[in-house]
Design goal:
The chain has 155 residues and is mainly alpha-helical.
Length: 155
């Protein structure tokens, strides 16, 4: 893009060197991310269908990511209020009443909270089970495991 020897070209080559040469992990992470976001959009579509709202999957593909970005701005706790305001703003051109847009936001946050609580409970059970295994181990093994864990945590 830049002529040879141009200072911006040299900076671009230097910046490109910071990226890994193996693209496979990046592509795998991108695929997982796409599946995750499409599942979020699909759940929004299911909520809209259940409420009898005329929101197409394509329309939600255009609006839900914008709402997610707005909710990540640290101006409220867990995006509460921001999410609902964005739904009202973005769904208005589709003829969705503010009450219905807020209902989508309320249902979404309930779903996220329930699923997160289930995940937290499951993770807690796994950690407790691992701690119990550690407690049942021989004292020498406990010291070795603790040292290994401390080494991993430190570096």
């Amino acid at each position: 893009i830049f002529p040879e020897g141009h200072r911006f070209g040299a900076a671009a080559v230097l910046a490109a060197g910071a990226f890994p040469k193996n693209h496979r992990p990046f592509l795998a992470a991108s695929a997982i991310s796409a599946v995750f976001h499409l599942s979020q959009i699909w759940i929004h579509w299911l909520i809209a269908q259940d409420l009898g709202l005329p929101l197409s999957f394509g329309f939600l593909c255009a609006t839900v990511p914008i709402v997610n970005i707005a909710c990540s701005v640290p101006i409220s706790i867990n995006g509460l209020g921001v999410r609902e305001a964005m739904y009202v703003l973005l769904f208005a051109p589709a003829g969705i009443a503010p009450e219905s847009a807020i209902a989508i936001g309320a249902i979404w946050i309930v779903i996220v909270t329930v699923v997160s609580a289930f995940g937290g409970f499951t993770a807690d059970r796994v950690i407790v089970a691992a701690d119990e295994e550690q407690t049942d181990a021989e004292p020498e093994q406990q010291t070795e495991n603790k040292t290994t864990w401390q080494a991993k945590a430190a570096g």
